[in-house]
Design a protein that fits this description.
Helix 2 runs parallel beside helix 4 and helix 6 runs parallel beside helix 8. The protein contains 15 helices and no strands. Among the domains are: 75 residues, Transferase, Pyrimidine Nucleoside Phosphorylase, Chain A, domain 3 (Up-down Bundle), CATH 1.20.970; 76 residues, no CATH class. Helices cover 71% and strands 0% of the residues. The longest helix is centred in the first third of the chain and has 15 residues. The chain is an all-alpha fold and 291 residues long.
Length: 291
Amino acid sequence: MKMLRHALQHAVELATLGWQLEDALVAGLTVQALEVQGGFNPQNIINTLWAFATLGQHPKDALVAGLTAWALEVQGRFNPQSIVNTLWAFATLDRQPVDVLVVGLMARALEVQGGFNPQNIVNMLWAFVMIGRQPEDALVVGLTVQALEVQSGFNSQVIANTLWAFTTLGQHPNDALVAGLTAWALEVQGGFNPQNIANTLWAFATLGPQPDDALVAELTVRTLEVQGGLKPQDITNTLWAFATLGRQPQDVLVAGLTAEALEVQGGFNPQEIANTLWVICLLCIKSPDVV
């Protein structure tokens, strides 16, 4: 058992480094895991799933079923990181966790929510997006409360992804959380990359609340600083957000996005082309070169 744990940990480390294990070794570890899984602790379960996910290997149904059954037995010992990593592993493996496991992990998350850090919170929300499940209202409330307590530890990526996850799940974060994330975004806006900016503006436009004028101004400045890294989707989502919010982007921003659109136009898909043209018409942007 101890040797298998070391082997699984080694497999995780090799997978993280980008190594591919031979099929025979993976098959052997699978057989051994099936024999001793009854002695697995939460970390062993997660490491096994993560190793397969990171290696791009699909574990056998029998192994997934066995790990699921044992996870249900020991879920009372799962910590926030264990809960998040288990859901992420299933999502990465493109396997749907059984309902009873999802319900159990949600219940455990409510018990240990005080231990969730900023990354745990956003990853938990993202995991539900990835597996196509709606978290229970009580869990959303609990994660919101915890987010308000630890929001000063949020970086630009976590802020953008939290707003994006709420939006994608069709959940509306409460006013206090939106205000808190807005205030903190102003503190860390120098770290926003093109994707963070586009996702943040898109989330506000989709959720409905008007973003603070100061935040829009700062994100505009930041967009101009990083515009050389914008992808077609970033350009479209940024323009779409301004249009949906009923905000007229500054001329200098329009000029910058126009220039960038001309650079990367070969990467626009049909939806991005249509949305960009719609925004140009709606905002009366004079960009004949882009059209």
